[in-house]
Amino acid sequence: MVASEKVVWVTGASSGIGKSLTKQFYANNISILATARNIEKLKELESQLKAKFPTSNSNLIVAKCNVTNLSEIDSLFDNIVDVSKISCLINNAGITSFKKINDNSIDEVNSIIQTNLIGSIYTIKKILPSLISKNEGMIINILSVVTKKVFLNSGIYTASKLGLMGFLNVLREEVRRNNIRIVNVIPGATETSIWSSDMLNKYSDRMMKPDDIAKIIVDYFMNQSSPVIEEIVLRPIGGDL
Ligand SMILES: NC(=O)c1ccc[n+]([C@@H]2O[C@H](COP(=O)([O-])OP(=O)(O)OC[C@H]3O[C@@H](n4cnc5c(N)ncnc54)[C@H](OP(=O)(O)O)[C@@H]3O)[C@@H](O)[C@H]2O)c1
After folding, report:
1. Cα–Cα distances in Å, from 14 out to 22, 30, 129, 152?
2. Which domains does the chain have, with CATH numbers?
3. 36: Cβ below 6 Å to ligand 1?
4. Cα separation of 201 and 196, whole Å?
């Protein structure tokens, strides 16, 4: 990796929207650090991309990183990538449970909040000092339409995404003077493995496709202008499920 190279860090890159983002950044010659817990899936994606786009100038690094585990995040930047290379973080890793609050176990509560909220705060805290010292950068966060209206069976997920949104609202104002852009992407139903196979069988024709969501984000990243689009809301043409 050359000294001046700028790298986009995509969390949750092993499937769904994160996998589509990795593919499209790679196809557009943008260097990527693609992380998730499942390193086998990431390595398979790396081989597929290298075979499909042999002339890409993108430097793709795949690495295991559980966003809930601070020592895995530290080790990523101690051993694999210099944190100063990261110019953009995409907080995409996320989970849900599609249950009523009364039916959620405490373990489910902890893992949803740890992954979606605390994990995103950990990743931001890791790269923020470097972005501030460079006086530039972008943090893109994949939130959800649950931040816009009430969806049943999504109580803990909603707490995690609205909590993150509140944190990001404060962060945005704190880092404006450091030329750091905080961008929230707010998708509605998208056809990925976050949904059960029953829901996918019933509704996939009404869902957006992860490649379409990724294309909008990659186009946005590649065409930055002076005004900041701070929020991108994406819904299926037929509306919410
Ligand atoms: N699909 C939708 O309808 C929809 C709508 C609105 C928002 N979103 C948001 O979009 C984001 C991506 O979800 P998706 O729909 O693409 O679902 P997905 O296909 O299930 O992908 C989720 C990704 O997150 C990773 N992940 C989960 N826990 C992690 C952890 N602790 N550390 C690191 N990575 C972790 C998973 O990889 P590993 O298992 O390999 O770690 C996977 O790559 C999520 O934040 C989700 O809330 C989705």
Report:
1. 9, 18, 27, 28
2. 7-234 (3.40.50.720)
3. yes
4. 9
Per-residue model confidence (pLDDT) at position 225: 87
Residue with CA closest to ligand 1 atom 16? 16
Sign of CA dihedral 67, 73, 75, 81: positive
Q: How far is the CA of 226 from the centre of ligand 1 (A)?
A: 30
Q: What is the mean pLDDT of residues 43-68?
A: 97
What would the pLDDT profile of 121-150 be if each residue is shown by its tens digit?
A: 999 999 999 999 999 999 999 999 999 999
In ligand 1, which atom is closest to the CA atom of 96? Answer: 47
Query: Cβ distance 214 to 17 under 8 Å?
Result: yes
- Which amino acid makes up residue 227? P
Residue nearest to atom 6 of ligand 1 (CA): 144
For ligand 1, atom 30: residue with the closest CA = 66
What confidence tens digit (pLDDT) does each residue in 107-124 have? Answer: 999 999 999 999 999 999
User: Cβ(187) to ligand 1 under 6 A?
Assistant: yes
| Of 40, 44, 4, 1, residue with least CA distance to 23 | 44
Strand intervals (E) in the chain: 7-11, 31-36, 60-64, 86-91, 137-142, 180-187, 231-234
Ligand 1 within 6 A of CB of 184: no
Side-chain-side CA neighbours of residue 210 (13 Å): 20
> What sign has the CA pseudo-torsion 43, 49, 52, 54?
negative
Look at the pTM and tell me if it is higher than 0.90: yes
Identify the residue whose C-alpha is closest to ligand 1 atom 25: 12
> Is any atom of ligand 1 closer than 6 Å to the C-beta of 236?
no
